[in-house]
Amino acid sequence: MTELRERRPRRPPRDEAATMSLIGHIKELRNRILFALLFIGIGTAVCFWWYEHGLGEFIRAPYCNLDEAFVGPNGDCGLLITDVFGGALIRLKISFIAGVVVSAPFWLYQVWAFVTPGLKKNEKRYGVGFVVVSSSLFALGATLAYISLSAGLELLLNLAGDDVIVALTAQDYLGFVISILLAFGISFEVPLLAVALNLVGVLSHELLSKSRRWIYFLTIVAAAFITPTQDPFTMLLLALPMCVLFEVAIQIARVVDKRRAKRDGLAAFADLDDDAASPLDARPSSLDDRPSALDTRPTGLDEPTT
Protein backbone atom coordinates (compact mmCIF):
# COMPACT_ATOMS: atom_id res chain seq x y z
CA MET A 1 0.00 0.00 0.00
CA THR A 2 2.84 2.36 0.82
CA GLU A 3 4.39 1.79 -2.60
CA LEU A 4 1.08 2.46 -4.37
CA ARG A 5 0.61 5.69 -2.47
CA GLU A 6 4.09 6.80 -3.39
CA ARG A 7 3.58 5.97 -7.07
CA ARG A 8 0.25 7.83 -7.29
CA PRO A 9 0.79 11.01 -9.36
CA ARG A 10 0.40 14.20 -7.44
CA ARG A 11 -1.97 16.91 -8.46
CA PRO A 12 -0.44 19.87 -10.26
CA PRO A 13 0.12 22.87 -8.02
CA ARG A 14 -2.73 25.30 -7.95
CA ASP A 15 -2.25 28.49 -9.88
CA GLU A 16 -2.89 31.26 -7.36
CA ALA A 17 -3.07 33.90 -10.08
CA ALA A 18 -5.76 31.85 -11.90
CA THR A 19 -4.08 32.54 -15.22
CA MET A 20 -4.99 30.76 -18.46
CA SER A 21 -3.47 30.79 -21.89
CA LEU A 22 -5.31 31.99 -24.97
CA ILE A 23 -5.81 28.41 -26.16
CA GLY A 24 -7.21 27.53 -22.74
CA HIS A 25 -9.70 30.40 -22.95
CA ILE A 26 -10.79 29.30 -26.42
CA LYS A 27 -11.29 25.70 -25.26
CA GLU A 28 -13.21 26.89 -22.22
CA LEU A 29 -15.44 29.08 -24.40
CA ARG A 30 -16.04 26.20 -26.81
CA ASN A 31 -17.08 23.86 -24.01
CA ARG A 32 -19.40 26.44 -22.47
CA ILE A 33 -21.06 27.14 -25.83
CA LEU A 34 -21.55 23.41 -26.47
CA PHE A 35 -23.15 22.91 -23.07
CA ALA A 36 -25.38 25.96 -23.60
CA LEU A 37 -26.52 24.66 -27.01
CA LEU A 38 -27.14 21.24 -25.49
CA PHE A 39 -29.43 22.70 -22.83
CA ILE A 40 -31.26 24.79 -25.43
CA GLY A 41 -31.71 21.68 -27.59
CA ILE A 42 -33.13 19.71 -24.67
CA GLY A 43 -35.48 22.58 -23.83
CA THR A 44 -36.62 22.80 -27.46
CA ALA A 45 -37.34 19.05 -27.55
CA VAL A 46 -39.37 19.25 -24.35
CA CYS A 47 -41.36 22.23 -25.65
CA PHE A 48 -41.89 20.46 -28.99
CA TRP A 49 -43.69 17.70 -27.06
CA TRP A 50 -45.39 20.29 -24.84
CA TYR A 51 -46.88 22.05 -27.88
CA GLU A 52 -49.68 19.46 -28.15
CA HIS A 53 -50.19 19.38 -24.37
CA GLY A 54 -51.01 22.99 -23.56
CA LEU A 55 -48.32 25.22 -25.07
CA GLY A 56 -50.14 25.72 -28.37
CA GLU A 57 -53.40 26.56 -26.60
CA PHE A 58 -51.55 28.99 -24.35
CA ILE A 59 -50.15 30.84 -27.38
CA ARG A 60 -53.51 30.92 -29.18
CA ALA A 61 -55.57 31.87 -26.11
CA PRO A 62 -55.48 35.70 -26.54
CA TYR A 63 -56.82 35.30 -30.08
CA CYS A 64 -59.30 32.51 -29.37
CA ASN A 65 -60.89 34.47 -26.51
CA LEU A 66 -62.19 37.03 -29.01
CA ASP A 67 -65.67 36.79 -30.47
CA GLU A 68 -64.26 37.63 -33.88
CA ALA A 69 -61.87 34.64 -33.88
CA PHE A 70 -62.07 32.12 -36.69
CA VAL A 71 -63.85 28.90 -35.74
CA GLY A 72 -63.35 25.77 -37.81
CA PRO A 73 -65.93 23.15 -38.81
CA ASN A 74 -65.31 21.19 -35.60
CA GLY A 75 -66.06 24.24 -33.45
CA ASP A 76 -62.48 24.83 -32.36
CA CYS A 77 -60.59 28.09 -32.75
CA GLY A 78 -57.56 27.94 -34.99
CA LEU A 79 -55.04 29.86 -37.04
CA LEU A 80 -54.66 29.57 -40.79
CA ILE A 81 -51.65 27.95 -42.46
CA THR A 82 -51.12 28.92 -46.08
CA ASP A 83 -48.29 26.56 -47.09
CA VAL A 84 -47.35 22.90 -46.73
CA PHE A 85 -44.46 23.36 -44.30
CA GLY A 86 -46.14 26.17 -42.37
CA GLY A 87 -47.41 23.96 -39.54
CA ALA A 88 -44.04 22.31 -38.94
CA LEU A 89 -42.14 25.58 -39.09
CA ILE A 90 -44.54 27.32 -36.70
CA ARG A 91 -44.31 24.47 -34.22
CA LEU A 92 -40.50 24.43 -34.44
CA LYS A 93 -40.33 28.21 -34.04
CA ILE A 94 -42.57 28.22 -30.97
CA SER A 95 -40.73 25.23 -29.51
CA PHE A 96 -37.35 26.90 -29.99
CA ILE A 97 -38.41 30.21 -28.43
CA ALA A 98 -40.04 28.46 -25.48
CA GLY A 99 -37.02 26.15 -25.17
CA VAL A 100 -34.67 29.11 -24.90
CA VAL A 101 -36.84 30.59 -22.14
CA VAL A 102 -37.25 27.31 -20.25
CA SER A 103 -33.55 26.44 -20.39
CA ALA A 104 -32.42 30.00 -19.56
CA PRO A 105 -31.15 29.16 -16.03
CA PHE A 106 -28.88 26.44 -17.42
CA TRP A 107 -27.30 28.27 -20.37
CA LEU A 108 -27.07 31.51 -18.38
CA TYR A 109 -25.06 29.57 -15.80
CA GLN A 110 -22.61 28.57 -18.55
CA VAL A 111 -22.18 32.22 -19.51
CA TRP A 112 -21.73 33.17 -15.86
CA ALA A 113 -19.21 30.38 -15.24
CA PHE A 114 -17.11 31.61 -18.15
CA VAL A 115 -17.14 35.24 -17.02
CA THR A 116 -16.84 34.74 -13.24
CA PRO A 117 -13.08 33.89 -12.97
CA GLY A 118 -12.16 37.34 -14.27
CA LEU A 119 -14.35 39.28 -11.83
CA LYS A 120 -13.70 40.61 -8.35
CA LYS A 121 -15.89 39.82 -5.36
CA ASN A 122 -17.92 43.02 -5.56
CA GLU A 123 -18.28 42.62 -9.33
CA LYS A 124 -19.58 39.08 -8.84
CA ARG A 125 -22.11 40.34 -6.31
CA TYR A 126 -23.29 43.08 -8.65
CA GLY A 127 -23.36 40.62 -11.55
CA VAL A 128 -25.60 38.14 -9.74
CA GLY A 129 -27.97 40.90 -8.68
CA PHE A 130 -28.04 42.33 -12.21
CA VAL A 131 -28.91 38.96 -13.77
CA VAL A 132 -31.65 38.22 -11.22
CA VAL A 133 -33.24 41.67 -11.45
CA SER A 134 -33.01 41.87 -15.25
CA SER A 135 -34.59 38.41 -15.64
CA SER A 136 -37.39 39.35 -13.25
CA LEU A 137 -38.06 42.63 -15.06
CA PHE A 138 -38.15 40.91 -18.44
CA ALA A 139 -40.55 38.27 -17.09
CA LEU A 140 -42.75 41.01 -15.60
CA GLY A 141 -42.85 42.88 -18.89
CA ALA A 142 -43.66 39.74 -20.87
CA THR A 143 -46.44 38.85 -18.42
CA LEU A 144 -48.06 42.29 -18.77
CA ALA A 145 -47.72 41.99 -22.55
CA TYR A 146 -49.53 38.64 -22.56
CA ILE A 147 -52.30 40.11 -20.40
CA SER A 148 -52.73 43.03 -22.79
CA LEU A 149 -52.81 40.89 -25.95
CA SER A 150 -56.52 40.14 -25.84
CA ALA A 151 -57.50 43.77 -25.22
CA GLY A 152 -55.17 45.06 -27.91
CA LEU A 153 -56.35 42.52 -30.47
CA GLU A 154 -60.00 43.18 -29.70
CA LEU A 155 -59.55 46.92 -30.13
CA LEU A 156 -57.73 46.54 -33.44
CA LEU A 157 -59.96 43.84 -34.91
CA ASN A 158 -63.16 45.70 -34.01
CA LEU A 159 -62.08 48.45 -36.37
CA ALA A 160 -63.01 46.10 -39.23
CA GLY A 161 -66.68 46.53 -38.35
CA ASP A 162 -69.47 44.19 -37.28
CA ASP A 163 -70.22 40.76 -38.73
CA VAL A 164 -66.60 40.21 -39.68
CA ILE A 165 -64.76 36.98 -38.96
CA VAL A 166 -61.05 37.55 -38.65
CA ALA A 167 -58.91 34.62 -39.79
CA LEU A 168 -55.29 35.31 -38.89
CA THR A 169 -52.44 33.29 -40.34
CA ALA A 170 -50.17 31.52 -37.90
CA GLN A 171 -47.11 33.41 -39.16
CA ASP A 172 -48.69 36.85 -38.71
CA TYR A 173 -50.13 36.06 -35.30
CA LEU A 174 -46.89 34.57 -33.97
CA GLY A 175 -44.88 37.55 -35.21
CA PHE A 176 -47.35 39.88 -33.53
CA VAL A 177 -47.14 38.02 -30.19
CA ILE A 178 -43.33 37.89 -30.22
CA SER A 179 -43.04 41.60 -31.04
CA ILE A 180 -45.36 42.49 -28.13
CA LEU A 181 -43.49 40.28 -25.66
CA LEU A 182 -40.09 41.61 -26.71
CA ALA A 183 -41.25 45.23 -26.69
CA PHE A 184 -42.52 44.97 -23.12
CA GLY A 185 -39.66 42.83 -21.84
CA ILE A 186 -36.85 44.98 -23.25
CA SER A 187 -38.57 48.24 -22.24
CA PHE A 188 -38.67 47.11 -18.61
CA GLU A 189 -34.87 46.76 -18.72
CA VAL A 190 -34.26 50.48 -19.41
CA PRO A 191 -34.68 51.67 -15.77
CA LEU A 192 -32.20 48.99 -14.72
CA LEU A 193 -29.72 50.45 -17.19
CA ALA A 194 -30.06 53.82 -15.45
CA VAL A 195 -29.23 52.14 -12.11
CA ALA A 196 -26.20 50.43 -13.65
CA LEU A 197 -24.90 53.73 -15.04
CA ASN A 198 -25.34 55.30 -11.60
CA LEU A 199 -23.42 52.47 -9.93
CA VAL A 200 -20.42 53.02 -12.22
CA GLY A 201 -20.55 56.79 -11.64
CA VAL A 202 -21.70 57.87 -15.09
CA LEU A 203 -25.22 59.02 -14.18
CA SER A 204 -25.85 60.97 -10.96
CA HIS A 205 -28.99 61.25 -8.88
CA GLU A 206 -28.98 65.02 -9.30
CA LEU A 207 -29.19 64.71 -13.08
CA LEU A 208 -31.91 62.06 -12.88
CA SER A 209 -33.92 64.11 -10.43
CA LYS A 210 -33.74 67.26 -12.58
CA SER A 211 -34.74 65.27 -15.67
CA ARG A 212 -37.67 63.48 -14.02
CA ARG A 213 -40.38 65.26 -16.03
CA TRP A 214 -38.56 64.70 -19.31
CA ILE A 215 -38.04 61.04 -18.43
CA TYR A 216 -41.75 60.52 -17.84
CA PHE A 217 -42.69 62.43 -20.99
CA LEU A 218 -40.24 60.50 -23.19
CA THR A 219 -41.37 57.22 -21.61
CA ILE A 220 -44.98 57.85 -22.65
CA VAL A 221 -43.90 58.91 -26.15
CA ALA A 222 -41.66 55.84 -26.51
CA ALA A 223 -44.48 53.56 -25.31
CA ALA A 224 -46.73 54.99 -28.02
CA PHE A 225 -44.16 54.13 -30.72
CA ILE A 226 -42.97 50.79 -29.30
CA THR A 227 -46.33 49.07 -28.85
CA PRO A 228 -47.28 47.41 -32.16
CA THR A 229 -51.01 47.67 -31.40
CA GLN A 230 -50.88 51.50 -31.13
CA ASP A 231 -53.93 51.46 -28.83
CA PRO A 232 -54.09 53.62 -25.68
CA PHE A 233 -54.76 50.67 -23.35
CA THR A 234 -51.57 48.83 -24.31
CA MET A 235 -49.60 52.08 -24.35
CA LEU A 236 -50.63 52.96 -20.78
CA LEU A 237 -50.06 49.41 -19.63
CA LEU A 238 -46.45 49.80 -20.78
CA ALA A 239 -45.87 53.46 -19.84
CA LEU A 240 -47.23 53.51 -16.28
CA PRO A 241 -45.13 50.59 -14.91
CA MET A 242 -42.06 52.04 -16.64
CA CYS A 243 -42.63 55.42 -14.92
CA VAL A 244 -42.87 53.61 -11.58
CA LEU A 245 -39.66 51.70 -12.33
CA PHE A 246 -37.88 54.92 -13.30
CA GLU A 247 -38.94 56.50 -10.01
CA VAL A 248 -37.55 53.47 -8.17
CA ALA A 249 -34.31 53.85 -10.14
CA ILE A 250 -34.10 57.53 -9.15
CA GLN A 251 -34.52 56.68 -5.46
CA ILE A 252 -31.89 53.93 -5.72
CA ALA A 253 -29.51 56.46 -7.31
CA ARG A 254 -30.17 58.84 -4.42
CA VAL A 255 -29.18 56.19 -1.86
CA VAL A 256 -26.12 55.16 -3.87
CA ASP A 257 -24.88 58.75 -4.23
CA LYS A 258 -25.30 59.40 -0.49
CA ARG A 259 -23.28 56.31 0.37
CA ARG A 260 -20.65 57.21 -2.20
CA ALA A 261 -20.30 60.73 -0.80
CA LYS A 262 -20.00 59.38 2.73
CA ARG A 263 -17.42 56.81 1.65
CA ASP A 264 -15.39 59.44 -0.21
CA GLY A 265 -15.45 61.70 2.85
CA LEU A 266 -14.11 58.93 5.07
CA ALA A 267 -11.50 57.96 2.50
CA ALA A 268 -9.88 61.41 2.83
CA PHE A 269 -8.82 60.50 6.39
CA ALA A 270 -7.94 56.87 5.70
CA ASP A 271 -4.19 57.51 5.39
CA LEU A 272 -3.92 59.47 8.65
CA ASP A 273 -2.67 57.96 11.88
CA ASP A 274 -5.09 57.72 14.79
CA ASP A 275 -2.86 60.04 16.88
CA ALA A 276 -2.36 62.57 14.10
CA ALA A 277 -4.01 65.94 14.31
CA SER A 278 -6.84 66.86 12.01
CA PRO A 279 -5.82 68.75 8.86
CA LEU A 280 -6.83 72.23 9.98
CA ASP A 281 -6.19 75.39 8.02
CA ALA A 282 -3.60 77.33 10.10
CA ARG A 283 -3.54 80.39 7.86
CA PRO A 284 -4.63 83.60 9.66
CA SER A 285 -8.02 84.88 8.72
CA SER A 286 -8.71 88.53 7.88
CA LEU A 287 -9.86 90.73 10.73
CA ASP A 288 -13.34 92.15 10.73
CA ASP A 289 -12.87 95.92 11.16
CA ARG A 290 -16.58 96.74 10.97
CA PRO A 291 -17.86 98.34 14.22
CA SER A 292 -20.22 96.23 16.21
CA ALA A 293 -23.35 97.31 18.02
CA LEU A 294 -21.48 97.38 21.30
CA ASP A 295 -18.94 99.89 19.93
CA THR A 296 -21.58 102.35 18.75
CA ARG A 297 -23.82 102.21 21.84
CA PRO A 298 -23.03 105.03 24.36
CA THR A 299 -22.09 104.00 27.85
CA GLY A 300 -21.96 105.83 31.15
CA LEU A 301 -18.20 106.15 30.98
CA ASP A 302 -18.44 108.12 27.77
CA GLU A 303 -20.62 110.92 29.29
CA PRO A 304 -18.85 114.23 29.98
CA THR A 305 -18.19 115.10 33.60
CA THR A 306 -19.38 118.38 35.05
What report would you give on this structure?
The protein is mainly alpha-helical. 65% of the residues lie in helices and 0% in strands.
Summarize the structure.
By secondary structure, the protein is an all-alpha fold. Helices cover 65% and strands 0% of the residues.
Keywords:
mainly alpha; 306 residues; single chain
Please render the helix and strand layout as text.
Blueprint: H1 2-7, H2 22-50, H3 55-64, H4 86-102, H5 104-115, H6 121-157, H7 170-187, H8 190-199, H9 205-210, H10 212-226, H11 232-267, H12 293-296
Largest sheet: none
Our estimate of the beta-strand percent is: under 5%
Would you tell me the overall average pLDDT?
76
Low-confidence stretches: none
Query: For the CA atoms, what is the radius of gyration?
Result: 33 Å
**Cα distance, first to last residue?**
125 Å
Beta-strand segment tally: 0
Shape: flat
Number of helices: 12
Q: What is the element string, with H for helices and E for strands?
A: HHHHHHHHHHHH
Instruction: Report the structural category.
Output: mainly alpha
Helix content: 55-70%
